[in-house]
Amino acid sequence: MNKKTGTPLKAVLETGGAIKEKTIGLDQLKAHAEEAGLAYFEADCDKARSCSAVLRAIAKAVDYPVFFGSNMDALLDCLGETLLEQKGGMVLALRRLHSEDDSLLEHIDALKGVLNDTVEYGDDNGRVFSYMVEHAGKHEAPEPGRAPRPYAQSD
User: Fold this and answer.
1) What torsion do the CA atoms of 1, 96, 89, 121 make, to the nearest 10 degrees?
2) 62 near 118, Cβ under 8 Å?
3) Would you say 125 and 16 are in contact if contact means Cβ atoms under 8 Å apart?
4) What is the model's pLDDT at position 146?
5) pLDDT for residue 105
6) What average pLDDT values come out for the chain (155 residues) when binned by 10 residues?
7) Which of 15, 54, 85, 129 could form a disulfide with 48 if both were Cys (CB 3.0 to 4.6 A apart)?
8) Helix (H, G, I), strand (E, B), or coil: what is residue 46?
9) DSSP 3-state of 131
């Protein structure tokens, strides 16, 4: 388990680890990360309704190649390689992760494990990896008899 979880923001940005969600907003986190000389990546997980969709959102946020494998091992590789490309390190923010969705519940511990493994990997390689997860509860259930609206593509 990561001993750095829950430490004050400045210490987490210097040494790596989890940033408690309620301590700072994402805009402020980005400013603090840049001030600390860390690359800032924000994964928009709002539309993700499956584990593979969350992993794709993360891979897209860090601009990882299209051939991303969409499993936890691939995520670990993705984050490790991205981290090594940064001078001092990076901060990853998972925006609006619907961690209480039935389809995601069983994967949350594995996701946290990968994030914490990346913290340790960064420490072993002279880089800082910090992360914050903004939890958004459960997606609203679709209305019966009505097909879900297609999402507008942002690209």
Assistant:
1) 30
2) no
3) no
4) 67
5) 87
6) 59 92 86 95 92 92 80 93 96 92 88 97 97 81 63 47
7) 54
8) coil
9) strand
DSSP 8-state secondary structure symbol assigned to residue 116? H
Rounded to whole angstroms, what are the CA distances from 23 to 15, 36, 42, 90, 106? 17, 17, 17, 18, 26
Give the pLDDT of residue 30. 94
26, amino acid identity: L
The two three-digit tokens of residue 43, written as one number: 């994964």
- What is the number of alpha carbons within 13 Å of residue 129 lying toward its C-beta? 23
DSSP type of residue 59: H
Domain boundaries, the chain: 9-135
Nearest to 130, CA basis, from 102, 94, 106:
94
CATH 3.30.370.10 fits 9-135, yes or no: yes
pLDDT of residue 36: 95
pLDDT at 6: 47
